[in-house]
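G., before I forget:
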Amino acid sequence: MARLIGIRRLEQPGRAPAQRVAEHDVTFREVSKVYDETVALDRVDLEVRRGEFLSLLGPSGCGKTTSLKLVAGFERPTSGDVLIAGEAAVDVPPHRRDVNTVFQSYALFPHLTVVDNVAYGLKQRGVSRRERRLLAQQALELVDLRGREHHRPAQLSGGQQQRVALARALVLRPRVLLLDEPLGALDHKLRQAMQIELRRIHDEVGITFVFVTHDQGEAIAMSDRVAVMNNGRIEQLDDPQRIYDVPATPFVAEFVGDMNVLEGLRTAADRVQLDDGTLLHVGRVLDEAPAGGRVRVGVRPEHTLVVQDEGSGRRGRLEAVMVVGHELQLVVVMEDGTKVVSRQSRTDTAVGEALEPGTRVWLEIAPGAAVVLGPAQPAQADAAPLAAAAPSPARNPQRKEKTA
Amino acid sequence: MIQRIYPRALGGAAGLSVLALGVLLYVGIGRLGLTLAPSLLLVLCTVPLYLAASIAFGAARRRGRRIGDYPLSLALPSATYFGAFFVVPTVFLAVFAVASTTGYGVIHYGFSLDAFRTALGSVYREAFFRTLRMAAVGTVLTALVGYPLAYWIARYAPARRKGLLVALILLPFLTSFLARTLAMLLILSDSFVAWHVLKTLHLIGDPPHLADTTTAVQIGLVYNYLPLFILPVFAALERMDWSLVNAAQDLGASGFTAFREITLRLTAPGLLAGVLLVFIPMMGEYVIPFILGGGRVDMAGNLITRSFLEVSNYPVGSAAALLMMGALAVFLAVYIVLSVRSEEQYGA
């Protein structure tokens, strides 16, 4: 930590130092971005707190990379305002923004050595050659890459290139560091190591990180806060624990973490009766569905328990048993044919690991753990106006039976 | 040993005999006065050359011989071709250059440096430097006109239009070179219809008197060699990773700095190839100055042509041609050194 204190904040010509201390490093106000016909961002409001590690999480095409480009300055919003450190940034060109990016493909300059790549930004700011070398060296040490200074990017492994890209952006001490799926090209093990590294570097330099990813595990593991995006909107912005435990929308519930989706009849505000008669105690309702209607119910695998002796649970047949590290993953086929994935720790499992597939088992669901995701059929009220204009064919979107 | 040489010898022999046949036919048809057919036939002659090479390959394979890591036989067709049409004439040139001449085109073979002395004299020297200047200016103009177009096609043109745009650039090549140049003469001459229209509209006074001037030759050079420059530059820009430009800007480089330090730097090999592809033929050009310069603008090529075709002074023409080749070889050497160096830089 001490080795970084030596790096002073560099004065930048043409970049007015922010006098007032803004609480938010990046602010989106009703930002929309429309490409031709497609809406990439739809009136998004976002505030990135000073010094936090914020992840933009979502499937491809959800608008997360567009958001990043708007902050970096490579795109202009169709409408709305983008503020960096409390100041309007829409008309500021990329090279005058106090923001640096770690690109998805790293975008290292192939004709420059590692140290020259890292020093590139410093050179643009007119830092003397000696100081450039020194600062680049320190940045490379920060990302734990030594002895490769005079190699060219093509001579480095993917993980090493990743570190150079990180050092190149960090050496400028930007107000905000943008990371565009930087771990996507790495193999699993390296990826996990880099997650820890990135978090360490973040805590060490105290710069705001905005991290784009489609990997929910990555976002949950690294971030202070996660913004789950879908169809150009932010569905939920919360700390990782709450994103997982208290999803705000059905999309978040299904996208983050694993979720068994069951169907049943909503008999009361907090009661859903599954087709085999099991009564579920529902903890939360994410999308209001009328009592008496059929609803979709989500249950996390770890909130279920597979037992061998008849209890209060549902009857089913064990289809598969998988040992995933310290966990045991069991797939149970219920009598109505739905599959439910159950996960439990191997140390306190109620059933043996040697359980044969095909064995009759009972599945218990923790009371209050289930959440109502919404009506089972698409709401008829939505379809009605369309049906009047044109007789609609049987609209029956495939329900997503998300298992493992 | 014999087995190793056999397929190559077969390929070479087959190539040579097909070539000989082609030349015989060429000469024969030329005598019949079928103007376009001979050149077409000459092109067709290369097809059997490749066939011969593949037959040689097949023969080698049937003998159960492994084709080496360095299949020289692939170069045989072109080697035969270059041998017949480049090396042999160059030898002739060398023989002529050290010969001497008396009277009107009577050649005495021997060893004399008189021809070189004449070829280094003031007339030829002036022509050489004039040619050098015109080719240099022409190359710079070509680059200034061609690079932005290649850049636009590579970076901004819609992907499905790129093929069409490149085809459009090549379109002039579908017309004969001579026809194109004569058409240019028409446009540059004072009787061109547009000048009349402009004059009637009182937008200009007199036509600009472009024909038969150095300017006309310069314009003609740029027009003719533009596609040759655009293609390699476009190929280089097409391989460009544009996220590098974004990265440079992200790190504080202005748009122009990013272009200079990243785009231009990374496409330099293509640019260099384009420059040479244009500069070297421009140095040897004699048809464009002949037609557009109206005999008033002499480039080195015109002097050499004249000494062969008009005054029949083969030794001086040959000496000048050899000196010219030597001068151009220097540029080529520079190119090779530069391109090898850039390859080393990116190499993994």
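The CA atoms of residues 261 and 298 of chain A lie 5 Å apart. The domain at 258-380 of chain A is CATH 2.40.50.140 (OB fold (Dihydrolipoamide Acetyltransferase, E2P)).

More on Monday.
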